[in-house]
Amino acid sequence: MTVLDSAAAGVPATDLVRVATEKRATTAKKGLTSPWASIAAIVIAVLWTIPTFGLFVTSFRPEADTRTTGWWTAFTEPSFTFDNYTEVLFGGQSPLSNYFVNSVIIAIPSVLIPIVLATLAAYAFAWMRFPGRDFLFVAVFALQIVPLQVALIPLLEIYVSTGLSNSYWTVWISHSIFALPLAIFLLHNSMRDIPVELVEAARVDGAGHVRIFTTIMLPLMKPAIAAFAVFQFLWVWNDLLVALTFAGGTRDVAPLTVRVAELTGSRGSDYYLLAAGAFVSIIVPLIVFLSLQRFFVRGLLAGSVKG
Amino acid sequence: MTLLDKILQLGVAVAIFAAVMALVLLLADRARGRRAEFVQSAAFLVPTVLLLLVGLIWPALRTLYQSFFNRSSVSFVGLDNYIRVFTQPELLLVLRNTALWVVITPILATAIGLVYAVLIDRSRVEAFAKALIFLPMAISFVGASVIWKFLYDYKQVRIVDGEPTEQIGLVNQFIVWLGGDPQNLIINEPWNTFLLIIVMIWIQAGFAMTVLSAAIKAIPDDIVEAARLDGVGAFRMFFSITLPSIRPALVVVLTTISIGVLKVFDIVRTMTGGQFGTSVVANEFYDQSFQSSDLGVGSTLAIVLFALVMPIVIYNVRQMRKVDSQ
Fold it and tell me: Is B49 in contact with A44 (Cβ distance < 8 A)?
């Protein structure tokens, strides 16, 4: 804002930006001159990183080593292997690769369905006129406060009575339903930011709601949809409660989180397997985090109340 | 099921959904005349409203109803389940633990996130430093639980070839390095609850740091500059300028973390399964509903959770509006 205002007053904006960066640079130097601040920051950063790092190192250590010595000894007596990953991914009765596939198959429709439904609903709430619109919108908005625990038992009863329980369908449907209130709310917010003139111009040209929706709204909503998609994907991928309730009983459907949680119970001291297993389940969100950090942070912050 | 079966199911599901939505949009597009707007809005909303009615509103009402019935939802028991939740010693412990979680986690996570945000503000490595703390948010609660369970691991000390066996958990190794005896940390009541709380703090500090860092950057430069010219030191700057300026964001962070903490399930489930006196409301809900098959107490715990979360969410939403309108 300040840059724009002074540009109007005749000062070249680039100069102002340069001045601003120089000012930033001096304050940055000030920050670094306080050694205690730097030390405190480094201590927190190390404390926050060590736990993950320790398990990461362990996932590459031979089984015998992980049972007798701590991971920190791996630096004085290095010995590393990929065996843990091979065993956990492909070995035994129920290999993790199987659950990895389940996680992917659960995630795709669980992200796709609520996005489509919620963009349509958000459009209706933002740009259509029909009786009871405001009441309906407030009702959907209010549903955000319902913790999903409140819905689990009756939903399971419905699934059991329809013979759908322990299939992908129940997990897809449940995740879609639980995502809707938040998705509608977020997408409605960004849909309202689109200038009215755009929609009105299209109406004058004779475009119907469906055309406005597909040709104007969808392209303009891309960033908001992407942020929600990233959030919903991580939510579904990392979810344990919904998966455990609706697909926990079967190897054919259960996702990675269910299996890794099960392993911590049944093979609680086999850290060579647990470490590799945990990282198999972490790797996808980690890639999402590193490659889509912008959408990731936006999506997570927007959706932090969900659940 | 083979891999092919699974992919086939996925394909069928996506195709059915796409076909239904395409049909709905096509029909809506053909609506003409006075009632066109109404027909179209119905087409846009009916699938969503139906799903919410069947999947959220009806189940919530049914849970409320079941909370007044016995374990198999056959006979009406009035408030018995609620009385049990608030009097039975095991369930009181669950409530006490939940209270500990919801008091400690938001305060510590926010404090650490705030201090870190202030420390790294405008430093050269800010983006990298932020990523380090934010990273745990990408990890599932289950993954985080494995990470910390390993950290807390305890091995009974035996003598092999004249040497005592080593600890593989870092925390116990530290205790040994400091000259203490290793402890079976995870079953040590009541401290184990605090050990689980640390996991949640570890996850949530990144969230607090990100929101508060943005709030700190939004403080107008001239205020900070003016204070600096007046010779205000770092500590006074923090307490009389930074803190008051970011108050609304602080409230949002505290309440948001509280809501997440009230619903915490995965960490307790994975680390202890709710044993050793560590259960919390969301975990006890799962145990009672799906393991003890006591639908009465299970539903009651869900309603209690709802009642605990509701006021915080309402307050949170109001504060969020304030922050947005600034």
Answer: no
